[in-house]
Design brief:
The chain is built from 15 helices and 20 strands. The chain is an alpha+beta fold.
């Protein structure tokens, strides 16, 4: 039984609604549906939104009529628990709604969700997501009508099997009949090709799913106004990943130096490629394919963005992405295939891997955001990369200072002198120049001082 007094004192929230009278039936019904589609909640009738007690007049069948109206206008039916209590001599009704085991719950043919203290209609994609989650299946497991195995690229399937055997020791004969392979990979739905099968291995998935493409653009400047180059990448989503990386590598810079002490050529991209690849894989794997938008890669003078249609699952916040968190894959079959293929290591670690890769490369931490119905990952150029080429220190020496600090966290004048085989005086002059340019900062004084990134 709910504690009506406590709920009134707490006020309205995502799980509490206050209604002045049973006459507000339409809003009561919508709130019942919103609560049933989430984790449940309570509606208190006979209380103003300000908390003032107005009370209700109970007739012989008031509670029964209220319960019947809710049951008749919800699908699947919602059976609330009703109770009453007296407050200041006035009767107040408490209506408790539990989360429905079968979702979505429709009210007069429409679905609702709770955001803060108000109800909002569910979009068609949200309704679909609730349905699949309720039955423990995902959208990508459903069929695409009028497709056959002839719509798949056999070589892509064989190549996938070889990778899966090598990466995950998967035991499926690479020469087995295609129908048998699809059955074992759970990529069939009642003998029809699933959406996942077409996206993963289709000759041209865009014939059936128009939005299943990656759009890449290199823009002039820092705003998405004028593009220098653009490419639309189609084909199956496994092959889209290396194609997108090819486009990126054509439009970002790489520095290369010969290190005399190591006699080898060092190459370093202005963004860590493995982190970019992780972001693209996540976008292809976890995007909302019911959304008509496309995965987008936007390259600017100062940053690179990866846009993925669809927001984070309700159970995961942007803050969660910066720490260990549970995985809530939107597309179960695709996620499993990407794992078997070696594209993802463990579910729920993609953002942490991006953060770690950027840290190891000495690049700024990637930024995660939700904008315009999309999940966006932004990579920014290193402040060091922007400055060090302008300092009055030979590029080769700058590169070794920066690489040394990236690896060890700090450098001393003696470390630098030995590394480059120069005098201590020259080493201190180089380091002082980089401090003046704002690239490094000096910690401590005298022989105990060292230098780190500013």
């Amino acid at each position: 039984m709910i504690d009506i007094h406590a709920l009134i004192s707490a006020g309205e929230s995502e799980t509490v609604e206050l209604k002045q009278s049973p006459g507000e039936m339409q809003e009561i019904l919508e709130t019942v549906g919103a609560f049933a589609n989430a984790t449940g909640g309570a509606i208190i009738i006979g209380v103003a939104r300000t908390g003032g007690i107005s009370g209700v007049t109970l007739g012989k069948n008031t509670l029964e009529a209220l319960a019947n109206s809710i049951q008749q206008q919800t699908d699947p039916k919602v059976f609330p628990v009703l109770s009453t209590t007296e407050i200041n001599g006035k009767t107040v009704i408490g209506l408790q709604v539990s989360a429905s085991p079968i979702k979505p719950v429709l009210v007069q043919g429409r679905g609702f969700k709770r955001i803060g203290r108000s109800n909002h209609m569910l979009s068609s994609s949200e309704l679909t997501r609730l349905f699949f989650e309720s039955w423990d299946v995902s959208w990508d497991a459903g069929p695409i009508a009028e497709t056959t195995i002839a719509d798949l690229q056999e070589e892509s399937i064989r190549r996938f099997l070889r990778h899966a055997q090598r990466e995950r020791n998967m035991i499926i004969d690479a020469d087995a009949p295609i129908a048998e392979v699809l059955e074992k990979l759970e990529l069939l739905y009642q003998k029809q090709l699933s959406r996942a099968a077409v996206l993963l291995f289709g000759k041209r998935p865009q014939k059936f799913l128009l939005s299943a493409e990656i759009r890449c653009a290199r823009f002039k400047g820092t705003e998405p106004l004028h593009f220098i180059d653009m490419k639309v990448i189609e084909g199956n989503i496994i092959d889209q990943v290396p194609a997108a990386m090819d486009f990126i590598q054509r439009h970002i810079s790489m520095s290369a130096e010969i290190v005399p002490t190591q006699l080898e050529r060092l190459e370093r991209w202005e963004y860590p490629l493995d982190a970019l690849r992780e972001a693209i894989i996540n976008a292809a794997c976890h995007r909302d394919y019911q959304d008509r938008g496309h995965v987008q890669i936007r390259i600017f003078d100062d940053r690179l963005e990866v846009w993925s249609p669809g927001l984070l699952p309700p159970e995961i916040t942007l803050a969660d992405l910066n720490q260990p968190h549970n995985s809530r894959p939107r597309n179960h079959r695709i996620a499993r295939a990407f794992f078997l293929n070696g594209y993802i290591e463990h579910w729920g670690t993609g953002t942490l891997r991006m953060i770690q890769l950027c840290k190891e490369a000495g690049s700024p931490k990637p930024e995660f955001a939700e904008m315009s119905g999309c999940f966006v990952v932004t990579f920014r150029k290193s402040r060091i990369d922007k400055k060090y080429h302008k300092a009055a220190v030979p590029i080769e020496r700058q590169q070794q200072i920066i690489d040394y600090i990236r690896k060890n966290g700090r450098i001393t004048g003696q470390n630098y002198a030995q590394l480059i085989d120069i005098s201590k005086r020259t080493a201190n002059r180089d380091l002082a120049t980089l401090v003046k340019k704002g690239i490094l900062r000096q910690v401590g004084k005298g022989k105990f001082s060292y230098f780190e990134f500013a």
